Amino acid sequence: MSTTYTVRDSATMLRRNLLHIRRYPSLSIMLVAQPILFLLLFVYVFGGTLGAGLPGQEGGGDRSDYLVFITPGILIMTVASVALGTAISTATDMTTGILARFRTMDIARVSVLTGHVLGAVIKTGFAVVIVTAFAFLLGFRSDAGPLGWLGAIGLLILIAFALTWLTVGLGLAADSVETASNTPMFLMLLPFISSAFVPTDAMPTGLRQFAEHQPFTPMIDTLRALVTGAPTDSDLWLAIGWCLLMALLGYLWSRRLFLRVPAK
Amino acid sequence: MTATNPAIEVAGLTKSYGDHTVLDGVDLTVPEGTVYALLGPNGAGKTTIVNILSTLLTPGAGDIRVAGFDVRREAAGVRASIGLTGQFSAIDELLTGRENLWLMADLAHLDRATTTSAVTEMLERFDLVDAADRRAQTYSGGMKRRLDLAMTLIARPRLIFLDEPTAGLDPRSRRDLWAIVREQVADGVTVLLTTQYLDEADQLADRIGVLDGGRLVAEGTAAELKRRVPGGFVSVQFTDAAGLAAALAAHPDAAADAEALTLQVPNDGSIAGLRRVLDDLDDDMVAGLTVESADLDDVFLALTGHAAVAPVSEGISA
Lengths: 264, 318
Fold this sequence. Notes:
Helix content of chain A: over 70%
Largest sheet of chain B: 6 strands, mixed
Strand content of chain B: 25-35%
Number of helices of chain A: 11
Distance between the termini of chain A: 27 Å
Number of helices of chain B: 11
Shape of chain A: elongated
Order of helices and strands of chain B: EEEHEEHEHHHEHEHEEHEHEEHEH
Helix content of chain B: 25-40%
Radius of gyration of chain B: 24 Å
Distance between the termini of chain B: 60 Å
Largest interface: A-B, 25 and 30 residues
Oligomer: heterodimer
Structural class of chain B: alpha/beta
CATH topology of the largest domain in chain B: Rossmann fold
Strand content of chain A: under 5%
Radius of gyration of chain A: 19 Å
Number of strands of chain A: 0
Number of domains of chain B: 2
CATH architecture of the largest domain in chain B: 3-Layer(aba) Sandwich
């Protein structure tokens, strides 16, 4: 009986999550403000100096070159930031009695989770649009055609799915809402040790090897190619592979955590 | 399922976590359309039983059927038949009362027309019309509990579990909730409730199971349980302090209240016992006399060897 209602129950749970976004806007605002603050900080405080160090240009680049360089990384931080919010809302659900109620109802159980994930992907869409608009406002310009942008949107949605399933798991595994707001912080830190803010060539060997092989780097490099109209390379498949792997592991982990018998 | 089948059948239910045994062989049967109260102190295993019957926990061992379905193999069937209102509020605080009820109706897969009328009916019946479009966050404790119960009942389950439904409520809200439970029973719904309050079990339940340390130590109607313990007494009211003092001398085991001029003499309720008390009393000094049988507090103490809740203050004993 449960399976026939998976779509309907997921839609119901999605409606619930969208209502939450409307009722608790401060969380969403905070999550969008975070990457925007990073964008402002890096462009205006560090941008002049860091821009000069960018390769490929005669005598380095300037502040506006740096804006173009970091916008893809900032967009991925936006996705990570919204995913962080998902860990919080999932953990909040776990600590209240409403989850026990859902568990005693004859509904498609996974719909509780798919509601969170679909809600998060929609939220990510809004956040990415806002942050992109902000980057344009600061002077971001791109030669990318519609195909490039479409590819970028597709990749961002895929990254959102991957990070969200991961943070749903982190939210379910957390024993409190406070824990859930801390454990996914690594998602905000990892982009710093990637190609997001400076080219990895400039890093010392050990760090560079880590930066070049961690999942965010191919995602950021591919996104950078897509939004600047440059050709994509094998990083595209690496990025998609990482996303699918993270989404699958996150989904399986979350599902196991959710369906397991509560300890008490 | 025919009308003769019990709503709940439990045989040999056990549950343990590691070495810690929570339930140690519980048997109970609840006929359809009746109210069964599980009475016991914190840690007796009441909530564990409710969680197992409502499919939140898997049983250790035992044969457990709820609404005719096996809780292990036919959990979906159980879930489609039951409603649960737990100790902790199971409402979505960010949504309004109306939205909470809509959410439940949608998840119960009611059609649009039924949902609209059921939501309106529930808001009226649970006195939540004025607060319907306010966030549940802003509700008082009593309102939250009413919304919680309305959410449980909107899908019209045949069997409801109420886990300490009135814990933390003021007396007025408790009585409101009792009235709602009685209405449900009048409609033929089966209720299993857990409580630490002896008067609650007395007020609502057809049968009471006394749970202590994971075992049912006694079971029966409130009257049957009270008869099992010799906790009654004769309460005598005197006209003056001298009379009270004289009677107290004759009954050193009695409890005296000097201000109210009353003496409570332990009594087993038999004619012979009553006559022995009366024989010692001087007619002129007695203003009034009542025979009291044991209350459930006494039952609890006698059956388990400890009080169910913090002991109530007794009269001044001499």
